Structure formats: structure tokens, C-alpha cells
Amino acid sequence: MRIVRTPRGARMVVSDAILSEIRSSPGPTDSLFDVLAACVAALAPGPRVALLGFAGGGIIAPLRAMGFDHPVDAVDLSRAGEKLYRQLSGDWAGVVRIAQADAERWLRRSRRRFDLILEDLSITGDSGTIKPYASFDSLPRTIRARLDRSGLAITNLLPLPGTSNESLAFRVAQPHRCALVVHPSGYLNRIVIAGDRLSGAARASRRIRKLLRAIRSNQEKTVSVRTLFRA
Asked: CA 61, CA 86: separation in Å to the nearest integer?
């Protein structure tokens, strides 16, 4: 992993892929992290948020700029991203509690229920950056078990060779009654939002775009939202 300093902070780069964009002040990253932050700030039904896969906390600066000031509980296998994040962030970052652990094991052992869980796990190998196997196997059910009744799961999906994006989206959303897919153009990622109580695609799109516009992110006009399924 390489650390690349930028005028606004730093980037964590792995094999030329940006793992995290970390700002030294609240504001947009002009990247996928803005869209993830907007999904959280626009749709979270309550203040209890968990982030699986912290890396360098790329969503924190846009999230705080959007006015979402609730505590965030995060987990990651490595402390490297946390160290850089702590160096760059200030009081504006609010309460961000970070544990070093396997994300699914940490979630299973937690006695808390969350209003929203953002799953942003990835692994980098010879074939590039992909999701870990657990993201499509046991983890979606574990996430569902730790959500409040009205809670939402948000998953940052990456393509998996030999499997369609649609199939992957259904696999991570399967434990829930409703699901939306957010597609930021220019990225291979798909963001799946799932829950038992979820607003429609048009309303979600308006709320996400409004927040992106509020922080002047260049991602505002890139986002499309569609319904994956609804019970």
C-alpha cells in the first residue's frame, strides 16, 4: 500500500486502485466515497451506524459535511488506515470508534443493533480488488441479524469475474424485503441498499442527489437509482 499526499489530505493506493480518499477537513472527495456517504446520510433511519471495512475512513469527511454528526462504529483488519485517518482528521470528524478485527466476527459478537450497516469490505490480490467470499455467503445474513427492524444494509459491490452484477446484488440483498441499486457512472461499483422498510427509487435518488449538491460534489449528476426488488 502506498500513501499519496494530496492538497486536501491523502490517498491510500493499492495496485493503482484508490482504497481510500482521506480529507483533512469536512467536504467532498469528488469520488465514490461521496456517494456512499450520501446514501448513509440520506437514508439512515436512526443514529446507530456501523462501517465494515474502514480503510482510511473515506466517507467521514463528506458524511460530516452533509450534517450527519452521529457516532460511527467501524471495524477493519488493519490499523494502517486508522493511523492515517487520525493524523489528518480533527474535532470536525466527531466520534468515530474503530476496532481491529474480522468484520463478521466483530458483528456477530456485538450486543448492539444498528440502524444502518455499511459493508465496504475488499481484498486485493493478483486479480485486482474484489469482495471477500463472505460478502456473498454468510455476511448478508449476519448483517440482517444485527439490524433494527427498520434498519438498512448498504453494500459497496465490486464486479466478480464470471458472475453478473445483477446476481451479486440479489445475493447480498436476499435477506431483506426490498432493495435498491445505486450506480455512479464512471465506476464499476454498484451500491446495494436493502431493508424491510425502504423508500422508492425516485425518492431515494432525490435525497441522495440533494446531499451531493449541498456539498458541491461532482458526483451529483452521475448517480442513478433503480429498484432491484420489492416484496
From this structure: 12
Which pTM value belongs to this model? 0.95
Contact 155, 175 (CB under 8 A): no
The reply to whether CATH 3.40.50.150 applies to domain 24-230 is yes
CB-hemisphere CA count at 13 Å for 176?
33
pLDDT truncated to tens, each residue of the chain (231 aa)? 889 999 999 998 887 778 889 999 999 999 999 999 999 999 999 999 999 999 999 999 999 999 999 999 999 999 989 999 999 999 999 999 999 999 999 999 998 999 999 999 998 766 678 899 999 999 999 999 999 999 999 999 998 888 999 999 999 999 999 999 999 999 999 999 999 999 899 999 999 999 999 999 999 999 999 999 997
What lies within 8 Å, CB to CB, of 4 at 6+ separation is: 10, 11, 13
127, 138, 147: which is closest to 103 by C-alpha? 138
Provide the sign of the torsion angle of the four alpha carbons 45, 41, 209, 180, taken in this order.
Answer: negative
- The residue behind cell 469475474 is 161
In this structure, what are the phi and psi dihedrals at residue 202, rounded to the nearest 5 degrees?
Answer: -65, -45
Whose CA is closest to 95, among 119, 117, 73?
Answer: 73
Between CA 73 and CA 51 the distance in angstroms is 6
Sheet holding 223-230, edge to edge: 96-100, 72-76, 49-52, 114-119, 147-157, 190-195, 178-184, 223-230
Q: Which residues of 183-219 are buried (b: 16+ CB within 10 A; e: fewer)?
A: bbeeeebbbbbbbeebbebeebbebbbebbeebebeb
